[in-house]
Each structure stands twice: as C-alpha cells, then as structure tokens.
Design a protein that fits this description.
It contains 5 helices and 7 strands. The chain is of the alpha/beta class. This is 16S rRNA (Guanine(966)-N(2))-methyltransferase RsmD.
C-alpha cells in the first residue's frame, strides 16, 4: 500500500501479514480523494475512520493536511500498527480500540467525513446500522459525508440518507448526506 498524494506522497507501507484487513486499492483510493479534493479543504476537516484496518485512508488524509483524524477498529493488531505508523510519520491520528457499533452508539462528536470500510461479507442489516447510528446520533457535520466502502455486489441505495455511489473495479463507495426530511 502506498500514500497517493500530499506530504508523504509515494511512501510505501507494509502492514503485518496477520492483520484481518483488505486495504482499499490505490486506484479506488485515488478516485475517492479526487472527489473529496473538489469538496473540502483537507486542513479544515475532521475525519472518523471506522473499521480502520491498516489506517490506509487515514494516512492519506493526514498526508493531505488533515489534523483531526480518529481511527476505530476492534482488532488490537490494527490499532497497534496504526499507532506505530502515525508516530513514525508524526501524523495527527488518534486511535480507539472498540467495536464500531458500540463506538457509534456512545460517541457524540460530529465529523466532516466519516469513512467506513466494514467487511465485504457483512449482511445488509449490518451495513444499514452504520448510517442509522451516524444520523441518529448526529455524528455528521452539516456539509459532511458518510462514505461506506463495499463490494459492487452489495446495494446500499435503499438505506436512509443515501445520496449516490461510485464504482471502481470491484470496490464501490456509497455516499450518505444529511437531507431535509
């Protein structure tokens, strides 16, 4: 995995083989950040990275100047790897070892961008819990985005607050926004 752009552009990172992760591909990550680059000033936003895994997405935000990044993952090895990497690059990333759903139920701070990369084999009901908890607990800022990465075989268009999706190879990003009800 490599950092696509920003201060750490081109840096390669190698996660331990024993982590239960599937990092976002470089192609999909580059396409996602091209979209976000047209909507946000990265140094002015806050980011919540759910099911953070290796921290791949968080490193990209940090490299582009985001100073408020929180990663949540329940795997100790993932949290340890993110902490070590963030420290070695002096990136402003904080980590929380927690079940994502427990975190969303009990957390109160809103974010500009919430990125979730749950296991691709999640049942639709589990995917649905993510936007449900985010919007029910007001965790997204007014002009913010919830982005869920999933397989192209999963359709999230029927979920509350769904806006649109973008497909990149086998990866898909579904975008959710606050809308007037």
């Amino acid at each position: 995995m490599r950092i696509i752009s920003g201060q750490y552009k081109g840096r390669r990172l190698t996660a331990p083989k024993n982590l239960p992760v599937r990092p976002t591909t470089d192609m999909a990550k580059e396409a996602l950040f091209n979209i976000l680059n047209n909507q946000y000033y990265f140094d002015e936003i806050s980011v919540l990275d759910l099911f953070a895994g290796t921290g791949n997405i968080s490193y990209e935000f940090a490299s582009r100047g985001t100073n408020n990044i929180t990663c949540v993952d329940q795997n100790y090895g993932c949290i340890k790897y993110i902490n070590e990497t963030a420290e070695s690059f002096e990136m402003p990333i904080s980590t929380i070892k927690s079940d994502v759903f427990s975190f969303l139920e009990n957390h109160k701070q809103p974010y500009t961008i919430i990125f979730a990369d749950p296991p691709y084999d999640f049942p639709l009901e589990e995917f649905a819990k993510i936007p449900e908890l985010v919007f029910q607990n007001n965790l997204l800022e007014e002009d913010g985005l919830l982005i869920i990465e999933h397989s192209k075989h999963t359709d999230l268009s029927g979920l509350a607050q769904y806006s649109h999706s973008k497909s990149y190879g086998g990866n898909m990003f579904s975008f959710f926004e606050l809308t007037e009800e």
